[in-house]
Structures are given as structure tokens and as C-alpha cells.
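USER: If only I could read C-alpha cells as easily as an amino acid sequence. It would mean a lot if you studied the pair and described how this chain folds. Here is the record:
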Amino acid sequence: MRNRRRRIDFLTAAGIAAPAGLNAYIPLLTVGLLARFTDLVTLQAPYDIISSDIGLIVITVLLVIELFADAIPGLDSVNDVVQTLVRPATGAFLMLSSDQGVLEMPALLEILIGGGLAGIVHATKALARPVVTVSTAGIGNAGVSTLENFAALGLTLVAILLPVALLIVLVVAFLVGIRWLFRRVSQPRRL
């Protein structure tokens, strides 16, 4: 039973770290709000800072800036460069924050896993975004950004509420994303 609990806790931890690669602040804000107003998430010091008044205010301000920057062609690419360090760091923070001593993993391994998952998601997003910009002449950026933000929120909630279902969601999302990217790249260019 203890190993099963550890696997579920690992899925939750990884599941709230990975969406930080789409948007660093949506998973942070979601976890902070759930810790503050529900018993679904418990954060120990120093990670409980994200559920404090100042933590929630700062994360909300950063989220508004991110939402604005990510929806504008050109500025979204600059934002992706800036977020190259922020998103993996957020993933590492979220992975560490969700461990209440149950995972029994070294902190460095948790940092590498959480940061790595967010980094992979971020890299995939950063590589796909120019394809969206070019193929839609920038018109599709706001829509894609909105979908990414809803995905970040949805994945975070699924990781907390139904961590086992997260595996299915991630595999399907990965396959759909790869198929879409392959189709975009392999289509002949029209002049």
C-alpha cells in the first residue's frame, strides 16, 4: 500500500511540475489557492509562501504579465526566451513543494525531475510556437496561448484530483502534439 501511495504522490508531484512548462504561474497560483482555501493541498515551509497574501498577489501579477506577453506575436517569442529559466525553476519548486516526505527521494533528484519535465514541455512549446506564428501569420497565437493556459490549469487540477488519470492525459496530449507538429512541418510550403 505504501508503494502505491508513493507512486500516486509521484504522479501528483510530476503532474503539477510539467504544466509549468506551458505557463509558470498558472500551476503556482492553482496550488497556492488550493492550499490557502481547501484541504486538497498542504504546503510546508518554505513552500507555503505561494499561499500567503503576498505570494498570491505576486503570482497573480506575474500571471497577468505572462498572459499579455504570450498572446502577442513576436512578444511571445521574447517571453519564451525569458521563461526558459523561469518555467523549469517553477517545475522544480512545484515538485519539491508537493513532497511531504512521502516520495523519499533526494531533493536534487526531485529538482531534476520537476525542472526537467517543465523544461521539456517548455522546449516543445517554444519549438511549436514559431510554426504556429508562420502558418497562421500570427493570428493563431492568441488562440494557441489560450489553449496552453487551459491545458496548464487542467493538467494541474487533474494531477491533484485524479493523478492516475494524468498518465492517460499526458500520453494522449503528447501524441496529438507530435502528430500536429509533424503535419505542420511536412506540409509543402505554398508561395
In short: Residues 107-136 form the longest helix (30 residues). The helical segments are 2-17, 25-37, 53-70, 75-98, 107-136, 141-161, 163-186.
